[in-house]
Specification:
629 residues; mainly beta
Length: 629
């Protein structure tokens, strides 16, 4: 620094720190004036550029966070590690690869079901190290059996192999009888489980071989009518024939019935479900049949399908099919009956049954009508008579022939010429009469007696296939015979549960008391809702005494009427001592105008009841009772 500059600095220092230095704060005091100041609130930008400011294009959309970089690096590291591990496992020296183990299965690509077949299995170790603790498992399809013992299902067959040296090969041969439906593919699976030395881990190599069943070990056919009428009984014939060169063991047949079918019986005893049959063993080339008898209900034109399966029984459940061999179906169409048959009982053709009474004739009319578009020849009509009220000595047949040995009335072309040929749309009717009778014997009463009529019309039609040539149509009706209740009454004076007083015979203007007894009797059917009602004359008074006191009895003073609700009355009350009786007491005050007369004590009584068996409303009456007892 030169001397001049140093002098200036010294002078300034003296000026600042001297006592006479100027007051800097006073001199720097802010003073407000009228000067206007314009303060900017934003950066200046060219007026023509109104868009948002842009970052330097060198850095635009190229930023990346530190975490993203770490994540990408981790992925790259994992991929590299997996790739390196895979390379070392499959290609490294002294390591093993499953791809270097080859399992081959040699056998036919298609076989007939139920025939023994042989498969050659080869396992080749192409690794550079040995396979240790090798185990070969061959899994067969369900139902495959051992040719040496056809009753033994194979399932899974295992064999311990042991060590397979590097480059070594083992071969095994297996045999089986494979069952199945035609054109169904079955699979055989070979699994090799192995370890490598100095390791406890196990590895598995799989190989699947498919074989086609080109023919079933059995053939099955189902034959029956193609058309039937609703309710007609018919047979289904199921035929099973062996195609196998060996005996088929433990064969089952199962059926699936359509709605409306009722199984009746079969020539071979079925299991309790009436839809499964044990056929047992079928020798090579042998044939077995089952005939199933039943009936089918349905509407006209309804189609029903019957399905049948044949197979070997399940080992765990011998009542079901474990391996199915073949299945078959039979379609049956329900057609309108070839003849419409109707039965009318006493001009009544509706309801489930008709009602009749003992010793009163029952008139039955049978009508028929040909529904076919062709004639029916050799028609015959028969009616079977039966029932606990049927008496063959009280049958009148009209134009028919009564065959008493079989209780049938028969009409044919001999008794009625127009039955020789009934043309399309033609019909007719016949009638007969039966009188029901009480067939009860001493100690053996008939309860709920009936009559029954079953009509059958048969004939022949030709030139049609798949339908029965012999035709049958049937109809039936039943008749229930009503019971015969009765009501009786009596006037008692010196007997009965009550003491009676007053003059006998009664005197004018003097009271006399009497006991009235009602008795309800019944015959063959029980009665429900039994009630007895009656009225008393004006000069008779109700005393309110009844016996038994358990009976339901009521009296109305306004109408002077008595009502007895007797409830239920059993059958044949006269013989078994179960009559219903009611005792009640009344008083009579005759007038002078009744002198020399027998005054009425109780007016006519009426019994109302319902027959429990027939549902018919029944009545019985008891005439008025007087003092002349």
């Amino acid at each position: 620094m030169n001397s001049e500059d140093r002098d200036k600095i010294d002078n300034l220092s003296e000026s600042l720190y001297s006592r006479g230095a100027p007051d800097v704060r006073t001199r720097r005091k802010l003073r407000f004036g009228n000067m206007s100041t314009d303060i900017k609130t934003a950066w200046d930008r060219p007026a023509e550029d109104l868009s948002e400011p842009k970052l330097n294009e060198q850095y635009e959309d190229h930023s990346m966070s530190f975490i993203t970089k770490i994540f990408i690096g981790s992925i790259i590291f994992c991929v590299a590690a997996v790739g390196l591990g895979a390379y070392l496992f499959f290609n490294g020296n002294n390591l093993i690869s499953a791809d270097n183990i080859n399992i081959s299965i040699n056998g036919p690509v298609s076989i007939p079901g139920g025939t023994p077949v042989t498969f050659d299995i080869a396992v080749k170790n192409n690794n550079s190290v040995d396979l240790a603790m090798a185990d070969l498992a061959v899994s067969f399809p369900s139902g495959a059996t051992d040719p040496a013992n056809p009753t033994n299902e194979l399932g899974v067959k295992r064999e311990f192999i042991g060590d397979i040296p590097a480059g070594g090969e083992i071969r095994r041969t297996v045999q089986a009888i494979i069952f199945g439906e035609e054109n169904v593919e079955k699979s055989i699976e070979a699994d090799l489980t192995y370890q490598i030395k100095d390791s406890s881990s196990s590895y598995t190599k799989k190989r699947i071989y498919s074989v086609l069943i080109n023919s079933s070990p059995v053939n099955m056919s189902v034959s029956s009518f193609k058309e039937i009428t609703s309710g007609q009984e018919f047979d289904l014939k199921v035929t099973i024939k062996s195609n196998s060169t060996n005996t088929l063991k433990n064969v089952l047949v199962s059926a699936s019935y359509p709605f409306g079918y009722t199984f009746l019986n079969s020539d071979l005893k079925s299991l309790p479900d009436n839809a499964t049959w044990r056929i047992g063993d079928i020798p090579a080339g042998a044939e077995k049949t089952i005939i199933i008898h039943g009936k089918l209900q349905g509407e006209d034109t309804d189609s029903r399908v019957f399905r049948f399966n044949v197979g070997a029984q399940n080992i765990n459940n011998p009542n079901v099919i474990g391996t199915q061999f073949v299945s078959a179906e039979q379609d049956i169409v329900i057609q309108k009956p070839f003849m419409t048959v109707g039965l009318t009982v006493d001009n009544n053709d509706t309801g489930n049954f008709s009602v009749a009474h003992f010793n009163q004739p029952v008139r039955v009319e049978l009508s028929w009508f040909n529904n076919l578009p062709s004639a029916v020849s050799d028609a015959q009509i028969s009616v079977k008579l039966a029932g606990t009220a049927y008496d063959r000595s009280l049958v009148q047949t009209g134009d028919g022939y009564f065959k008493s040995s079989t209780d049938e009335i028969i009409w044919n072309q001999q008794t009625l010429k127009k039955l020789a040929a009934v043309g399309a749309g033609e019909g007719g009717s016949v009638n007969f009469t039966v009188t029901p009778r009480d067939m009860s014997l001493a100690g053996k009463p008939v309860v709920n007696p009936t009559l029954s009529f079953t009509a059958t019309v048969s004939g022949r039609r030709t030139q049609e296939t798949g339908v029965p040539e012999s035709l049958t149509a049937a109809a039936s009706r039943s008749v229930r015979i009503s019971t015969a209740p009765s009501l009786s009454g009596a006037i008692l004076r010196n007997v009965g549960p009550f003491n009676n007083t007053g003059p006998i015979p009664p005197k004018a203007d003097e009271k006399s008391t009497y006991t009235v007894v009602w008795t309800i009797d019944n015959t063959n059917n029980s009665l429900d809702n039994v009630a007895v009602t009656a009225t008393l004359p004006p000069y008779v008074s109700w005393l309110g005494n009844t016996s038994p006191d358990t009976e339901d009895v009521s009296y109305s003073t306004s109408t002077n009427s008595i009502a007895w609700n007797a409830g239920t009355v059993g059958t044949y009350t006269a013989s078994n001592g179960t009559k219903k009786q009611l005792y009640f007491q009344v008083s009579v005050l005759p007038s002078v105008n009744q002198i020399n007369n027998a005054p009425t004590i109780v007016n006519d009584a009426t019994l109302n009841a319902t027959d429990h068996f027939t549902g018919e409303k029944l009545t019985a009456t008891q005439s008025y009772l007087t003092t002349r007892f």
